[in-house]
Design a protein that fits this description.
Number of strands: 9
Mean pLDDT: 87
Oligomer: single chain
Shape: globular
CATH topology: Oxidized Rhodanese, domain 1
Number of helices: 5
Strand order of the largest sheet: 1-8-7-2-4
Order of helices and strands: HEHEHEEEEHEHEE
Radius of gyration: 17 Å
CATH architecture: 3-Layer(aba) Sandwich
Strand content: 15-25%
Low-confidence stretches: 4-20
Largest sheet: 5 strands, parallel
Structural class: alpha/beta
Length: about 190
Amino acid sequence: MKILSTYLWLLFVFIPMVANAADKPASNKKQTIENLYLTAKEAYALKQSYGNKALFIDVRTPEELIFVGSAGTMDINIPFNTLDYAHWDDKHHGFRKVENQQFVDLVDKAIRDRSLSKDSSIILMYRSGSRSAKAANKLAAKGYRKVYTVIDGFEGDKQKKGKLKGKRVVNGWKNADLPWSYHLEKGQLAGLK
């Protein structure tokens, strides 16, 4: 009976959701080659349904995860960019971000360590969705075909008007009341021994 109820749940809830997964984002910064997009709620449902058969990667820096929080269903943190503490970026009012040259190698290792393949579902999440799109395109160029980006990211998009203008309160993982924490496990940080 439990198998039947699980099957029915997948049939009536999950499959229509993926078939109608998040529309192509309006922002070019969030668009990907493979056009696979999920909202935070859809990403949570996919991970819950697929379990260990899907890999959930947060592509923000470890510093962001420690100070802003991380998704409760994240498998691993593999930053797409790292911070260059020797150089300041005046335009962005912070340390310069440089592409993590080990990104694809670390994803390959995470896939192998979990006995997955380049055909497995991978969920990428960033603060608001633009960095995860760049990471998805990098993986697509290396033969990965089921790389989904969370278009509203962990913190969501900025409010455009009103009292909360400029605050990330529109959508996203945190604003959807999905499980998250400031607590990280050592095994969630790629390359850490």
